[in-house]
Amino acid sequence: MYLLTRSLWHVTCTPYLRLRHATMSFLRSATRRGPTTTHRAASHVAQLVLARRISSSVTPRDTIPVFSTAPAALRPVADDLGVYGASRTLAGILSNDETFENIIEVQRLKPSHVATVAESARLFIPSMLLACVDLSREIIGDHPDVDESLRVLHSLGKDKAQIQGSKETYSWVIVDPGAKKYTNPSVDYTIEVIPTIQVADGLNKGLDLSPKIMRPMHDSLSPKAVYITHPSKKEPTPQVRVLMGGITELLKSGRTSLISVLTTGISWQFYYIRQTGTTISYRATSPLNLDLDTLAILKLLVASTVGDPEDFVKFAAVS
Distance between alpha carbon 134 and the CA centroid of its chain, in Å? Predict the structure, then answer.
């Protein structure tokens, strides 16, 4: 069953609560005992059932507006969005097209040819995520309020560190699996925000910068900032897949909201998933096309990574 409130779609029912408690029990058990194959499989089943129930119970009736994909209009002024602190800083950054357009041109993020589905996933997803990670790290280094906001949001501790000539920060952004080694178009991605000092300590010990090394113990259970998935032949309803991954990460994180992304490499759709008490709701953008909406896609990836997800709709309004 669901309730429609201010164009957000809510699911709350006794079966939902039982499934949520079951999911959390599996996750806590796996945290205590370690991520064994049995616990991974069991928690995955509980998460899938939960996501399926929510997906089948909810029908979106409107979308999150994205400024640069709408008909020509005046961009909302960041000061009028009702965001403050780090979110106000990020809204100002997102309002500046030139920064993002330069990256799109230098890194050649626009498709130069018509690609197959497999080629799109293999070529364009890693390129966009690497551009997002690079720009996110730059923003964190240049804007201490954004860094501090991420430290609090992701519980990163109170120690700063410096890596390879970058500025001293609390927060470091990684993408998993390492996009430069990406070969399997069926692999899901996550963007993670981890303590910079953890990376620096690893480097001092002679370790590489792979996500597996940098991530905390019980890596499969550590919360993610953004979840990125793709349509699959095994899952005929893409919405179920993107919600399942997003809800799983949301429940693990202990936060109230998270961004989940559905992409083929060419098409990108952003889902804002939110939990209020026992209620989970979501809104989504329209599918964005990499050839036409490159600017919007890169901006929303960065906003999802370094911004407070609670303000995602407002970030989209100036993106």
Answer: 15
Cα end-to-end distance, the chain, whole Å: 34
28, β-bridge pairs: none
pTM of the full predicted structure? 0.81
The SS3 assignment for 54 reads helix
Task: List, for residues 135-174, the tens digit of each pLDDT value.
Answer: 999 999 999 999 999 999 988 889 999 987 789 999 999 8
Please calculate the CA angle 32-34-40 and round it to the nearest 5 degrees. Answer: 110
CA dihedral 242, 243, 248, 251 (to 10 degrees): 140
306 contacts: CB under 8 Å, gap ≥ 6: 90, 136, 139, 140, 146, 150, 173, 193
Q: What are phi and psi for residue 259, nearest 5 degrees?
A: -105, 130
Rounded alpha-carbon distances, angstroms, from residue 180 to 135, 166, 253, 309: 16, 21, 27, 27
Residue 132 φ/ψ region, left for φ over 0, alpha for ψ in the -120 to 50 degree band, beta for the rest: alpha
Q: How confident is the model over 59-94, as pLDDT tens digits? A: 555 789 999 887 666 788 888 888 999 999 999 999
CA distances from 174 to 86, 130, 180, 209 (A): 20, 9, 12, 9
Give domain limits for the chain. Answer: 2-317
